[in-house]
Amino acid sequence: MAPSRLSKHPGLRRLYSLYEEEGELAAPGYIREELPPQVARRLASTRMLELLGFLLGNKGLGVSEVARRLERSPSNVSRDLNLLAKWRIIRFVEQGRRKAPEVIARKIEIIFAEK
After folding, report:
1. 20 to 30 A from 14, CA-CA: which of 6, 38, 65, 67?
2. pLDDT of 39-88, one tens digit each?
3. Are 17 and 3 a contacting pair, CB within 8 Å?
C-alpha cells in the first residue's frame, strides 16, 4: 500500500505516525506494504542491497560521500535513496546543509502470493 493511501486505513496511519516519530516501530505489530512487482524487484536488486548494507555500517554520511565510497554516481545514489525513503526503509536526517540517510527498517520480508 502506498503511503498516500493511508487515509483509508486509520490503523496503519497510527502505526506509521509512531514509526516516523520514534525512528522505528514503537507499537507491537508491523507495517505491511503491498508493493508493485517492479518496485519490489528494484528494492531487492544487488545495488540496492549493497547500498542498504553500506548504510547500516556507515552512519552519518551525506549522499555525496556515500556515492563516493560506493564508487557510484551521486545522482544514481540519490535516486535509490529517495525510493528507499518513499517506502519508509530509510529516512533523511538533516545535518546542517546536508542530509544523511539513516536506515529505519529493521526487517524487510518479501512474500510472493497468488491472488
Report:
1. 38
2. 888 988 999 999 999 999 999 999 999 999 999 999 999 999 999 999 88
3. no
CA distance 14 to 75: 33
CATH code of 74's domain: 1.10.10.10
DSSP 4: G
Say yes or no: 28 and 48 in one domain: no
- Through-space distance between the first and last CA atoms of the chain, rounded to whole angstroms: 16
- Looking up cell 514509526 gives 19
Residue numbers of the domain that contains 60: 35-115
User: Does one domain contain both 8 and 28?
Assistant: yes
Q: How far apart are CA 35 and CA 88, in angstroms?
A: 12
